[in-house]
From TrEMBL:
Keyword set, alphabetical order: Allosteric enzyme, Glycosyltransferase, GTP-binding, Magnesium, Nucleotide-binding, Transferase
Entry cofactors: Mg(2+)
Protein name: Uracil phosphoribosyltransferase
Gene this protein is translated from: upp
Function: Catalyzes the conversion of uracil and 5-phospho-alpha-D-ribose 1-diphosphate (PRPP) to UMP and diphosphate.
A GO molecular-function annotation: uracil phosphoribosyltransferase activity
Binding site for 5-phospho-alpha-D-ribose 1-diphosphate: R78, R103, D130, P131, M132, L133, A134, T135, G136, G137, S138, D201
Length: 210
């Protein structure tokens, strides 16, 4: 597993406002989207491209375009949905599949309640979006889901991670080429499985408590 923490003052600044309990939902949503776009820049560094010939107003030349098959973006519902527009802004030709997962707040085990993904993911570059990597159970299950469908190239993009969750995902993906791009690695998990200092419940802060 390769982990990249996007250490940039703009990211740290936006993260600070995002963490603040006083930040209202409307600002929280905007910041998640903006942070996603900044993280997407790092996460797509190895996106597959192919060469293409074009003609400028001055001369013919060659450039590159995103290769086929197009990348697949997989937001994990609910909270990952808040990252989707920030990602497609940068990668508009990508396709989007969905995984719905909810963590049982007592056992901290994830369950998958929805799935809309291609049956065959071989040869697809997959980008999984989830703002929070806490125990790592949800992300490990999501990555396993994609690998079981034949994916071999998976990048996860998270805004915050706990060291315990990173270790759990590492153990679950041992020997596999999985990349994780993060805004920050926080101190630890608390006794309720929340990231400390974290930002609270990302889904609730985006969409309210349901
Ligand atoms: C949150 C978060 C992750 C998961 C992280 O989602 O968005 O998916 O918890 O926790 P883990 O690393 O311990 O598995 P949640 O299950 O609360 O669902 P929601 O997005 O609908 O709020
Ligand atoms: N899910 C969240 O939304 N926040 C946490 O801190 C942990 C899991």
């Amino acid at each position: 597993m390769r982990v990249h923490v996007a250490d940039h003052p703009l990211i740290t600044h936006k993260l600070t406002v995002l963490r603040d309990v006083q930040t209202p939902s409307v600002t929280f949503r905007e910041l998640v989207s903006e942070l996603m776009t900044l993280l997407a820049y790092e996460a797509t560094r190895d996106v597959r491209v192919e060469s293409v010939g074009i003609t400028t107003p001055v001369a013919p030349t060659t450039g590159v375009r995103i290769a086929d098959p197009k990348p697949l973006i997989v937001p994990i519902l609910r909270a990952g949905l808040g990252m989707l527009d920030g990602m497609v802004k940068l990668l508009p030709s990508a396709e989007v599949g969905f995984l719905g997962m909810a963590r049982n707040e007592e056992t901290l085990q994830p369950t998958t309640y929805a799935e809309r993904l291609p049956d065959d993911l071989s040869g697809r570059q997959c980008f999984v979006l989830d703002p929070m990597l806490a125990t790592g159970g949800s992300l490990a299950a999501a990555i396993k889901f994609l690998l079981d469908r034949g994916a071999t190239d998976v990048t996860a993009i998270c805004i915050l991670a706990a060291p315990e969750g990173l270790a759990a995902v590492e153990a679950a993906t041992e020997g596999l080429d999985v990349k994780i791009v993060l805004g920050a690695v926080d101190e630890r998990l608390n006794e309720n499985g929340y990231i400390v200092p974290g930002l609270g419940d990302a889904g609730d802060r985006l969409y309210g408590t349901v």
